[in-house]
Design goal:
In chain A, 63% of the residues lie in helices and 9% in strands. The first copy, chain A, is mainly alpha-helical. In chain A, a hairpin with a 2-residue loop joins β1 and β2. Chain B binds a DNA duplex through α2, α3 and β3.
Chain lengths: 182, 182
DNA sequence: TGCAGCATGTAAATAGTTACATGATTAT
DNA sequence: ATAATCATGTAACTATTTACATGCTGCA
């Protein structure tokens, strides 16, 4: 049921089509959840049947009619109920960490390349989030209304920092291995 | 196919029954992957059929016969091939972070309680990993053989530290909310 | 007496991904 | 020309969880 509530949270900020919601749930756009479009369409349909969301159908020329979804009072109430119940602590599921436990089975240079790739990826992502933090929430904008979204953003930034710290420890060791290899 | 390789990595350290492997993959035991026992049994069966693992059947009185699995040469070779191909970067999928973006919809005291619960949980987990790091890898034990497992452990510790840092930011804000609430 | 641990497995359900399908428009 | 964007959806598959099933032993 997680995706269901993730969508409700997304719709809290305003109405949107399944397509738009799906875009936000694509790899990397939002930090904390990922979902493909068929999953989102089917979940929206279920919630429309339950009356948690409603949609306005807008016909378009040369495109399928778009459905603009918004929360209903029922949906908002269900969301509020969920908000007060603890969320499950998710398992990690990162094969890269598993791989490291037996890193001696890999080719050091390839492992190093993989870490450098991850580091690059993480730095790019982090830059985006830091940008948002600076333009939206820093300095003047200390409106308590934005405090929660900002704190949520902090989760991403802090996590990325941690990953980078770990990557640097890996790189340090792997570089010694690659040097002695040649 | 991730679970498959996670099991192979696990079997690298030595033989084991499905039951034992499943225990290690339970919530919280290993840091980086989670799996239930039916999933592990079925994956072991598939890999036995492919010849990546083999097992020795040991009859027992009053218990079902146990199967002690170990890697075959084929399994080890497949694992080595996998080691040299980059692992996918996993999505995060933590509803707690999502929840924070609309934290104003929750009851502050309940949200605070949830954060404190997570903090406690994380500190307990981290203590276990730090213990392992100190007893197994610190001081005298600078054997390069243990360098990779140690680095893998560092991923957990560094990640936990990051979570704790974030939790403290949340707690600081939520405490002001709870105070002004009463 | 009742629960945890050992040890296997099957069956059913839910969650999530990938491929297929359509079709016009705009940018490269 | 080709790919990306808009916008929906279905179908098939893979991954994962939960419930059911068995049965003995040792502990509180």
């Amino acid at each position: 049921m997680s995706l269901r509530y993730a969508i409700l949270v997304d719709l809290c900020r305003g109405e949107g089509t399944g397509y738009e919601i799906a875009k936000r749930f694509q790899e990397g756009v939002g930090f904390s959840w990922k979902a493909s479009h068929p999953q989102i369409y089917s979940e929206l349909k279920k919630m429309a049947d339950m009356g948690w969301v409603e949609f306005e159908k807008i016909e378009q020329e040369s495109k399928p009619a778009k459905k603009i979804y918004r929360l209903t009072d029922d949906g908002l109430n269900s969301l509020k109920l969920w908000m007060d119940t603890p969320a499950e602590i998710p398992p990690v599921r990162d094969m890269f960490i598993i791989k490291m436990t037996v890193g001696d089975l890999a080719t050091p240079s390839k492992l190093l390349r993989e870490v450098l790739e991850r580091k690059k990826f993480t730095m790019e992502k982090m830059a985006i989030f830091q940008q948002i933090e600076e333009t939206h929430y820093k300095n003047d904008n200390q409106d308590p209304k934005y405090k929660f979204p900002q704190l949520s953003l902090r989760a991403a930034i802090i996590t990325f920092e941690a990953h980078l710290k770990w990557f640097d420890e890996l790189i340090e060791y792997l570089e010694t291995l690659v040097k002695s290899e040649s």
